[in-house]
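User:
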Amino acid sequence: MSALDIAAETGHWRAAQILLGGGPSPDRLRLEISLGLQRVALVKDGVQVYRTHCSTGRPGYSTKRGEFVITNKERYHRSTIYHVDMPYFMRLSCLDFGMHAGYVPNYPASHGCIRLPEEAARRFFSELPVGTLVTVQ
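Assistant: Predicted structure:
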């Protein structure tokens, strides 16, 4: 297990940013995800500039809560567990979940990932660098 894996998986997101070679200050750029509202907000310089709906983990597959960083991005990712395509995949803190484009009903329906409308996934993939803080609450 690498130092990055340990920092990311234990919630030390600032250490993970350093090991990734940087990342934006959360005051400048961050993503906030509300499991209760099934909403995602892009926050720049303390101002919410974009909001979209999402679909998170269904019962039995809950989405992890906490502070994470985007540790890698793959435009064309395929799940090795569920064998499905996950376009615009952004892995969170080296873990087995992340954010990606997919079907987004108005309720939790995923296996733990944060599903996004394709337009939102494309935007986040383009605008959020590796190291960006993502808060899931």
